[in-house]
Amino acid sequence: MATMAKETNLPNGPAAAALLAGGIGSAVMGVLTLLVEYNTKGPFATAMTWTKPVGPLSGKSGLAIIAFLVSWAVLHFLWKDKETNFNQIAMIALILLVIGLVLTFPLVWPLLGA
Q1: Which residues pair with 51 in a beta bridge?
Q2: Could you read off the pLDDT of 71-93 as tens digits, one per residue?
Q3: Which residue of 22, 51, 71, 86 shows the fewest CB atoms closer than 10 Å?
């Protein structure tokens, strides 16, 4: 006699949290890159230099990673047992990813005043 496997539907909240956190981390990286490029010798660029050989990239990437991890933890805690509107969250994450990518391109910086 064959047994039927019980189908379980897992909530999509944890996956949505990870996806949105990736978008947030990307956007943070882009915004920090633009801010450092506004004044490369200013106090903000100096504060972003966590290690001298790497320069401000160390602080920008470090803060972007921290933003990703914190937002992932918070969103996962909020959505761990929830069913979310995954398409809407994916679209927001994609928009944040594009913002982050565009703001890291040197050709865009003069257009935004950097």
Answers
A1: 55
A2: 999 999 999 999 999 999 999 99
A3: 51
Reduced to 3 states, what is the DSSP secondary structure of residue 109?
coil
Kindly tell me the sign of the dihedral angle through the C-alpha atoms of 68, 114, 102, 107.
Answer: negative
Contact 61, 29 (CB under 8 A): yes
Cα separation of 87 and 83, whole Å?
Answer: 12
Assess contact for 85 and 38: CB atoms under 8 A.
Answer: no
CA 98, CA 112: separation in Å to the nearest integer?
16
What pLDDT does 40 receive?
Answer: 83
- Rounded Cα distance, 8 and 5, in Å: 9
Give mean pLDDT, residues 20-30.
97
Which tokens is 9 given? 């539907």
Q: What is the DSSP letter of 41?
A: T
